[in-house]
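Appendix B, record 7
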Amino acid sequence: MTTTSTESGHVLDTGLAGEGARRIEWAAREMPVLRQLRRRFAEEMPLNGLRIAACLHVTSETANLMLTLRDGGASVALCASNPLSTQDDVAAALAAEYGIPTFAIKGEDRDTYYSHIQAALDSRPNITMDDGADLVAVLHTTRTEQLTEVIGGTEETTTGVIRLNSLAEDGRLKYPIMAVNDADTKHFFDNRYGTGQSTLDGITRATNMLWAGKKVVICGYGWCGRGVALRARGMGAHTIVTEVNPIRALEAAMDGHQVMTIAEASEIGDMFITVTGGLAAIGRDSLAAMKDGAIVANSGHFNVEIDIEALEEMADGKQTVRPFVEEYLMGDGRRLYLLAEGRLINLAAAEGHPSAVMDMSFANQALSLEYLAQTAHTLTPQVHAVPRDIDEEVGRLKLQSMGIRIDSLTAEQEKYLASWDVGT
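Structure tokens (predicted):
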């Protein structure tokens, strides 16, 4: 792999910068909330003097967030949060056109991936931004001498919040982190509508599969699973949900999806999509039961939701039949297809979430960083919710950009809702 390493980072090819800049500008057209915040940040400089290390998917939407933070006065260093999620032209533009140190190459191996995280931490950040908590994990294990310099951080994903809550419960989290993932204007929209659309987009690009009539098994019915199931059914698929949580399983059934165990689903599914955030949602037994031609993909953050090691052991051989499609020939003659090495299919084979939905998530990120800059010294080293007024401000700005107006409570209505002594 020929790469370009400069003072501004490590990217595939700085010659791609022009194309990347055009993509960044195109995405900005669909990100009106972040655009408003960028203008305000440039005037008020709420992040002035702060050093931020960000471990995020390096996409055109992420680039617009980095530019917003830069214009707000921060020094920013960016690395990838997944080996297959980088858009190389965008990384090149950030490094060569905008002067933001960027360490990210699509398809980078594990050693390169972690060397890029180390490079981002070399910037001696005061604030971290994470998408999966790998940056925080490295900081808390091999770069502990820097922890006293960090005042706070943000986390973008369900997987990352789970990891950070575990770290906090062990008493080992050393600074406060805002769970941007749990904000309503993030998980209601990004996880559901963003993941729903982009997952089907990635699978379609990789396979050119017709969805209509297919039996599509969605493993997990959190907000991402809801979105994937909703969109698959909208494309004409017969949707099947597997779950371990009885409440979510009940919700899936009442939403009109067929609910069953993974053992039952494995025998009949045409397409399997994991969005659980957990380990081995599709394991050896499931792989052994799948029919010839079954396709397996993951849209959860890490490539552990499919037992790839078991698949490798069970197969007599494999070959690449399309970009991001590996055909595994099983001992009994069946063929199974794994997409994108089990990594995030929506970012590996497509472009990730639409800009319009990332607009809200990244507006939450920007406002949470502003909040941390002002209040981090008052917060305990725990995982904290995004303040409600920030969440509602993002919703208000998004509605405004869409030309939608809503009602407000009158003083009398507010008094009624706050009272206990008004009955029948």
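Remarks on this record: The chain is about 45% helix and 15% strand. The first strand starts at residue 4 and ends at 6.
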